[in-house]
Amino acid sequence: MTVRHRGALAAMAAGVAALTVATLVACGSRPAEDVGADEAAALASPTPAPSVTTGDAASVPVTTGELPAGTKVVPPVRLEIPTIDVTATVNAVGINERTNEFEVPPSVDQIGWYRYGPGLETDAGSVVVAGHVDSATQGKGAFYRLRELDEGDTLTATGSDGEARRYRVVAREEYDKTRIPLDRYFARDGKPRLTLITCGGPFDAKVRKYRDNIVVTAVPA
């Protein structure tokens, strides 16, 4: 994956690609340090699956190959994170045809599930959900406090089948948007996990973007 492709995640995680605003509210303090990075890395397959990109500037890798035959994909429709007071609707989203970037829902109180990856029924791979940190016009987003999650915190993702599945946080990491290992976090292989992404770090007023991404990894509890 090229630096150009990695850099496009900036708009994805903040929702800037799907929501054009004049400026953004300050994100707040950064995490003191990453936690659980080694455990998060161990969940991934040692040999990343091959991936392709859509268009010339896709923001995230779209893994080649099909999901297992006969598998009914169960999209998440609701996410609850008591520790940070989140109860949010989750919408299935893909890549914006105009920008070739992950299309986070325009309402900052809603979250997007990456429908090109696994659903909640999966026994392998990363289920990715991304949300806004904030907006100048709408205020704090659903993932405004995502950076506060720590190892051992729990969350619940409810699927379209009505089943509520509990997860336990094992890692919280912060990356410069040009350095985030997208193939790891959008993989269909490795151990099953839930990956939550938003923006973080210092805000650049000139380009109206945050420098970093906050990535939280959780495993079935």
From TrEMBL:
Q: Which residues form a coiled coil?
A: none
Q: Would the keyword Oxidoreductase be found if you checked this record's keyword annotation? A: no
SUPFAM superfamilies cross-referenced by the UniProt entry: Sortase
Residues making up the signal peptide according to the UniProt record: 1-22
Q: What Pfam families is this protein classified in?
A: Sortase
**Low complexity bias located where?**
41-54
Quick check: keyword ATP-binding in the entry?
no
Stretches for region Disordered: 41-60
PROSITE patterns assigned:
PROKAR_LIPOPROTEIN
Query: What are the record keywords, sorted?
Result: Hydrolase, Signal
Any single GO molecular-function term of the entry would be: hydrolase activity
Record's protein name: Sortase family protein
